[in-house]
Known about the structure:
single chain; 217 residues; alpha+beta; Muramoyl-pentapeptide Carboxypeptidase, domain 2; four-stranded antiparallel β-sheet; 5 helices; 4 strands; 13% strand; globular; disordered N terminus; NO_sig/Golgi_transp_ligand-bd; TRAPP_component
Amino acid sequence: MQGTPITTKASFPTTSTAAAARAKQTGDDIWRNRTDKINAELFALTYGSLVATLVKDYEDYAEVNTQLDKMGYNIGVRLIEEFLAKSSLPKCGTFVETADVISKIGFKMFLGITPTITNWSADTKEFSIIIDENPLSEFVELPDDALLPPPASTGGSAATGLWYSNILCGVLRGALEMVLLQVDVFFVSDVLRHDDATEIRVRLVRILDEDVPASDE
Length: 217
């Protein structure tokens, strides 16, 4: 992926302590009291079956990545309505606030986790989501060929192997588009691929106008 300038740790933008605490409390409250729980193991296995089916159907990891992103986008477009109804949040004033809400409320509400927001760009238009425990990738080990770019002889995409949880990128992209934020979202690293961390990069492209329809995907 493209290199991205980041701020030093000391200058990472943050929401106020009180706002961060409120966001965390809101996420915890929704998770405890207003979210229907599903069995984590069943969820992981069901998602694994979906990925396995896509791999079998397309026989091309780059295309599987694309299909997972598209599925996630369509899910995100619909999930945002439930998210807004359950959280009753006002509109975020900055992209920094948006990132905090994604981490402390969005991920908590739907996956029961609170990832870390870090690696902000100097213009605060890009950040990373670090996921310590990914419920989608429980019980998963990728084959060696899923970790590598396709050989040039196959005419495959330059995309690097399989990003197993790429559906999350689509969910974020679709949900944020519904609140008028056009973003690029992509995986930078994944522990399934023997990286040190699972990192998703989110880049703000532009703020949409109220009357611009969502992408037709």
